[in-house]
Amino acid sequence: MIIFLPPSESKTPHTHGDPLNLDQLSFPELTEDRSHMCDTLMEISARERGWEELGVSQRLAPEVERNTELFIASAGPAINTYTGVLYTALDADTVTHEDRLDTVFISSALFGVVSARDHIPAYRYTMTPKLATWWKKRLSPVLDDAWAAEVVVDCRSGAYRRAWPGANTLPVKVVTETDGVRKTVSHNAKHTRGLVARHLLNRGEQMPTTPQGVVDALEEAFTVEYDHPEITIVV
User: For residue 38, what are the domain limits?
Assistant: First the structure.
């Protein structure tokens, strides 16, 4: 089983450690594409109004400027680089079965996909529809092959999901229900998906290997509705 997470917009810079080495990241088939993306991002970020070209506010200009140091800044585990609601709920440093982090992968506008343990620097870059199309051509042959026999619990959304809409993914949808009325709330969805990942990593049983096994595992902790391939968590 694979747990596929979205990245977070906010990231924690690492204060020590070696800089980014693309040759050490998972899926070396993507090294050339990652190098191209890093070079492009650094070039844009070095421009006077690079923040505007990247579609962020001037308030985030310092984070955009930090993009120019991708190969200089300290890198650390991706699971600790990404922050925010989902990652707070996941709380990877306290999972019971640390070895299960090997099943966790994270979608990235810059790197395409990284493993939880891959060392990356903090950066500011968002997956746009155009970029998702660019990555889809490159990720599909790699992930379709690498994960062909896996059940992929897909906690991504939007453009990140479009970058690799694998045939064997189980998209996790989160809805709230009040007086019989359901709606999707982004903040709630991110938090719950973090809890979903944490539950699968922490439970005492073996990791599930089938879609129904995933559903059964999640029903231990959540109200679940399953309409293949989509898993809906009702909160």
Answer: 2-234
Domain count, the chain: 1
Residue 45, amino acid: S
First vs last Cα of the chain: how many Å apart? 24
Q: Does the pTM of the predicted model rise above 0.85?
A: yes
Residue 184's pLDDT is what? 86
Distance CA 69, CA 7 (A): 20
User: For the chain, which ranges sit under pLDDT 50?
Assistant: none
Three-class DSSP category at 203: coil
Cβ neighbours of residue 53 closer than 8 Å, sequence gap 6 or more: 44, 47
Which pLDDT belongs to residue 185?
Answer: 80
Report the distance separating Cα 48 and Cα 12, nearest Å.
24
Q: Give start and end residues of each alpha helix (H) in the chain.
A: 31-45, 50-53, 61-66, 78-81, 85-90, 129-146, 158-162, 186-202, 211-218
In the structure encoding, which two tokens stand for residue 7, read together?
A: 């990245």
Q: Using CB atoms within 10 A of its CB, is residue 8 exposed (0-12), middle (13-18) or buried (19+)?
A: middle
Give the pLDDT of residue 58.
Answer: 94
Handedness of CA 211, 215, 216, 221 (dihedral sign): positive
State residue 186's pLDDT score.
83
Which residue in 15, 25, 20, 8 sits closest to 70, CA to CA? Answer: 20
Q: Which two tokens stand for residue 122?
A: 């903090």
Q: Which pLDDT does position 117 carry in this prediction?
A: 98
Residue type, 134: W
DSSP 93-112: GG-S-GGGGGGEEEEETTTE
Residue type, 201: L
